[in-house]
Amino acid sequence: MILYEYPFNERIRTYLRIEHLFRRLAELVARDHPIDHHYALSTIFEVMDVGARADLKSDLLKDLEKQRQILHAYRGNPAISERALDAIIGQLDNCYNSLSSVQGKAGHVLTENDWLMSIRSRVGIPGGTCEFDLPAYYAWQQQSGESRRADLHRWASTLAPMAESVTLLMKMLRESGAPQKVVAHAGQYQQNLPQGKTFQLLRLSINPSLGVIPEISGNRLMVSIRFMRQEADNRLHATSDDCNFELTLCS
Description:
By secondary structure, this protein is of the alpha+beta class. The chain has eight helices and eight strands, in the order βααααααααβββββββ.
């Protein structure tokens, strides 16, 4: 199954981008080739760019506190395991405390590293990190994979509190939804959303054998999905076939 996710607000859109970047970073750091580590470093710079939003840290802390308060309300409920409740509240507390202790924006400490910032200033220029432009960076790329990996882990660790907070919040958000099997008749699907409930994330799973691609739009009142198919002209065209898929709305 192919899973697509659609955020209903800018805050969740940012969380998804951060999550995507950290998944990429983990894949690249684990490899040994200098090119992989070049793109790992570039990904760290991308995380810093996304994390530069002034309200990101504040949003994360508010969401962690909100989830903590929601879970505290389940204390004494016989249907809820106190041990499981303590475990997840402990994770929220750890993330909150770690993130609170970070000074400034994401990766702020890395901005004080002139060598890294010289690379960051050129990484967006086509071919801007060649050895004649950045000989010190080229020398670093000639080091062993283990040495480069240790550096990357050290630099990425400054971003860990943000990564851990986003990962935990997104896990809890995804678990809040219940999947339902639905059909898009003639490739079109619409659903009115219940009043008084705010959804933050849509998840759509579809069998790749159908060969269709969803175009999703939504707001607090309605979700609309149109299924497209890539034809021989390499353009997307609306399909008129019925499409079975699984839909999850997370609040």
